[in-house]
Fold this sequence. Notes:
- The complex is a heterodimer.
- By secondary structure, chain A is of the alpha+beta class.
- Among the domains of chain A are: 82-207, 2-Layer Sandwich (Beta-Lactamase); 222-294; 434-583, Histidine kinase-like ATPase, C-terminal domain (Heat Shock Protein 90, 2-Layer Sandwich).
- Helices cover 50% and strands 20% of the residues of chain A.
- Chain A contains 13 helices and 17 strands.
- In chain A, α1 (11-81) packs across α8.
- The model of chain A is unreliable at 1-5, 112-123, 214-218 and 588-597 (pLDDT under 50).
- By secondary structure, chain B is mostly beta strands.
- Helix content of chain B is 9%, strand content 46%.
- The longest helix of chain B has 20 residues, at 6-25.
- The relative contact order of chain B is 0.26.
- The interface between A and B is medium-sized, with 18 and 19 residues.
Amino acid sequence: xxxxxxxxxxxxxxxxxxxxxxxxxxxxxxxxxxxxxxxxxxxxxxxxxxxxxxxxxxxxxxxxxxxxxxxxxxxxxxxxxxxxxxxxxxxxxxxxxxxxxxxxxxxxxxxxxxxxxxxxxxxxxxxxxxxxxxxxxxxxxxxxxxxxxxxxxxxxxxxxxxxxxxxxxxxxxxxxxxxxxxxxxxxxxxxxxxxxxxxxxxxxxxxxxxxxxxxxxxxxxxxxxxxxxxxxxxxxxxxxxxxxxxxxxxxxxxxxxxxxxxxxxxxxxxxxxxxxxxxxxxxxxxxxxxxxxxxxxxxxxxxxxxxxxxxxxxxxxxxxxxxxxxxxxxxxxxxxxxxxxxxxxxxxxxxxxxxxxxxxxxxxxxxxxxxxxxxxxxxxxxxxxxxxxxxxxxxxxxxxxxxxxxxxxxxxxxxxxxxxxxxxxxxxxxxxxxxxxxxxxxxxxxxxxxxxxxxxxxxxxxxxxxxxxxxxxxxxxxxxxxxxxxxxxxxxxxxxxxxxxxxxxxxxxxxxxxxxxxxxxxxxxxxxxxxxxxxxxxxxxxxxxxxxxxxxxxxxxxxxxxxxxxxxxxxxxxxxxxxxxxxxxxxxxxxxxxxxx
Amino acid sequence: xxxxxxxxxxxxxxxxxxxxxxxxxxxxxxxxxxxxxxxxxxxxxxxxxxxxxxxxxxxxxxxxxxxxxxxxxxxxxxxxxxxxxxxxxxxxxxxxxxxxxxxxxxxxxxxxxxxxxxxxxxxxxxxxxxxxxxxxxxxxxxxxxxxxxxxxxxxxxxxxxxxxxxxxxxxxxxxxxxxxxxxxxxxxxxxxxxxxxxxxxxxxxxxxxxxxxxxxx
Lengths: 597, 217
């Protein structure tokens, strides 16, 4: 026999370890990715939030500026209509310009008290104002109090080339001894001639710039202006400002860099710096709004969060380690069991296959034996009968001897039948009998038997009844179908009583043809009914009844080969009836399944 | 019935002869000034508009003031001229006067006017006044030069007074033709004022009784 091979124990722990390592790799990879992503996102969020704040501040600034422009545009339009302003500008009377402007502005603003504090500049809420002539040159006032004080150098910075027809925004850096370093926002409004529509002058007004207020970032935001290399950022000392200004200059040197942001170190603390040009397209020198947000807090928060992430990641990994260990064990257990089982199964199957082969060989051997035996028997029996018939043909025999020989010949015929039946059975047992399924006319077969029957001498005087539909076709092989019929009908005849009845009926039921063969005669005892289909069972039939006890068995085996059956449906004192069930022949459908004996 | 005495008749005769002599002794100038192209179609009522463009003050449609430059004795009294405000405009829009002339500015509108000038030749401010203002507000223009008149209330109103040192001046017609009579003989410069920045001039020798034709191309 085959021995059960030992499962390869060494491979199983290897599988478990691999599973564990793979799971740990996946978990740590996912954790690391999550960590990286979270940190990156947080840094981006911080920057984005600050940028939004910077942008909203700038937007607020722009709104305030728009309002201011609108008011100033209206003012300059009104001024431009005034005869005295026109007269001063056009009639070469610039000395009268500022006094006229003062009068007109006071008039316009409805504050004609003329008190020293109520200078026109203050009426406009401006720090100063100047007129530019049509060539963009500054017209200096004779009395600075009319228009606000400006150093000559500062006044020169207000000059523009040819006066544009659109308002221009600029910034003026002033370093006053009294008020220190300041930056003023300057707006140049063109003054149009009311008759020709051409620009005849401009009004330049200086304001305290609209201040950005650091609100959301907890007042940490520092904002200022960068103008021509001057960085106006009061909260920072000069050295830091110089450093920031250098960084800014470098950033702005790149083309089309009207706005940007970068991280700059102020002292030791990193800051996020945003800048945006406040007056793009202006004829005045470019000025940039600069905002600085300290990143120290945010970096500290990020650092702390990073540690939290790392701690969480470590915990996660630890948990994942145990979980994967557990899961690996759980997952590998059935695999291991499967491995062991499959080894056992293989051995079992091998054993079963061997046994099966042995049995098959034995069966083949025995079937061959009975076939061989039958063949070997047939020849001597034939020889015997031939001899006996020859003897009988002799004329010297006495009638008694002739009688004896006739009996012997009859016995050889029985022997031949028996051998034929055994041969058939042994072929069936060996599984070598396969039916060629063809439509078989059952009605014709029965009628043939009835013809034979009527030709034979009938010593019992049987009365035969038939109830058979015309041309009842079944699926089978005619040769074997007729054996089934013959055996059943012969039995019905043999076991009948004198003057009894024999009834043959057939009908269809679904796919089935159902044939019943009934006869009068002695009932089969109930105890024997279970055994009538066994080989060589002859019940309690009288010895005068010919047969060898193979008929019913053969009929049933053949019927089953036809995928049908034979069974006893009734047996009592009056009537014994068998039922044969066969498949109807279906046109076009030819059952050709191999017989499984 | 008495007849005039012969001496009286003679006197009259001599007076007429004298007059004729004087008038014969005076020269006359006529000619044509090429005016700049008008930017607008001349309006029928010949009203003018004072325009300032690129710092140049001119009248539209164009018209020239032709005058004889030179030193002439100042007359003891000069006639009073008027520059009225009518229908929210100065009438006339361009008024040449000899230096020292008193110009009155009567208001013929139903509204206030406030005539003023920032011009270097004459700065003044008449303040607000109505048509019933008496005496009629006036100014004496002593210094030669161009005076731009404006109204503080009505920004579009412009008037020009060209103050000249000479008594011999005339406005051309809309085509630029002029005729300047009663001129003394001698060598002079004839000038044609076209706008605040353009004055053309030509030398001229005037002979008594002659009529000279002089064009400004």
